[in-house]
UniProtKB/TrEMBL annotation:
Mitochondrion is among the record's keywords: no
Ranges annotated as spanning the membrane: none
Protein name: Putative Pentatricopeptide repeat-containing protein, mitochondrial
InterPro entries cross-referenced by the UniProt entry: PPR_rpt, TPR-like_helical_dom_sf
Cellular component per GO, a single term: mitochondrion
Length: 295
């Protein structure tokens, strides 16, 4: 995420006509993360997806919501650890085990003396998510918590919450939120729930979660605002202006996604001048525009 310096408010005067209605109801999904982008899908369905095993070893291992120690090591001047082969991770164990015996397979793997630190956990979850094996990713997290192999922090609970929503639906996800220890029910938890509601186009539920964030005295972040913008872009363009005004009033810094959405909104109303004004503002803020990803 680029840093945005506020010499002046970049949202001021950019929201005019952004609430204009449009006949184009087909919108590409494009924004969901906890810290880094995570994929979205149709929630409420078991979505394990079989893929060509020959592709697995060549995939780049990405950072997952459960943090690894790589960034800290590099910050301290330590050498970056060598990339771990997928075959040496619990990823291979989870992938090869039938659903009913994942726990037994993992217990056996650990008893054989294999390492299971946050780095291995992060890469395993990241690769399961990439392949949309959400059911098995959830089983892995449930095993970690039940076997006390991982001391859960808020991001870990948020990762499990997201998987519960994907595998079992949002009703179960709501119930899971109430099971999370209160001390870990922070902004990350609620923004994860909001993002899942937004991906389903549920305005009422998304706004209820926003109210909970405020009721608990938690900060309304750029991520939350972008989720609302994406939601309203799909279902109620007039509310986009409300979100932009809230961001201005509460000094919430826009993200590159916020700018892309504004440019898209201006483009849909053929407001070429407005599009150019936004690009000028972005350059003034030191933000580079990547027009490749679709909104």
């Amino acid at each position: 995420m680029w840093a945005l310096r506020r010499a002046s408010n970049p949202l001021r005067n950019l929201s005019s006509q952004s609430g204009a209605t449009t006949s184009d109801s087909k919108v590409d999904d494009g924004f969901f993360d906890l810290d880094s982008p995570l994929e979205t899908d149709k929630i409420g369905t078991f979505v394990d997806k079989e893929e060509d095993e020959s592709k697995l070893d060549s995939v780049e291992v990405a950072h997952c919501s459960i943090g690894s120690s790589d960034s800290k090591s590099q910050a301290n001047g330590e050498k970056k650890p060598k990339r771990t082969s997928l075959a040496s991770l619990p990823f291979k164990v989870v992938m090869e085990a039938p659903r009913h015996s994942v726990n037994d397979a993992l217990n056996k793997w650990v008893k054989e003396g294999n390492s299971l630190g946050r780095n291995e956990i992060s890469m395993t979850l990241s690769n399961l998510r990439k392949r949309m094996f959400y059911g098995k990713a959830l089983q892995f997290l449930e095993w970690l918590e039940a076997s006390k192999r991982l001391d859960f922090v808020e991001q870990d609970y948020a990762s499990r919450l997201d998987l519960v929503a994907k595998v079992h639906g949002l009703h179960k996800a709501e119930k899971y939120v109430n099971m999370i220890p209160e001390s870990f029910r922070g902004e990350i938890i609620y923004r994860t729930l909001l993002a899942n509601y937004a991906s389903m186009g549920s305005v009422k539920k998304s706004e209820e979660v926003l109210n909970k964030i405020r009721d608990h005295g938690l900060p309304v972040t750029t991520f939350t605002c972008d989720q609302l913008l994406l939601l309203y872009k799909r279902v109620d363009w007039e509310k986009i202006v409300d979100v932009l005004m809230m961001m201005e009033e509460e000094n919430i810094q826009p993200s590159p996604f916020t700018y892309r959405l504004l440019i898209d909104a201006k483009g849909r109303t053929n407001d070429i001048t407005g599009m150019k004004q936004i690009v000028v503002k972005m350059k003034a803020e030191g933000v580079e525009l990547d027009l490749q990803p679709k909104l």
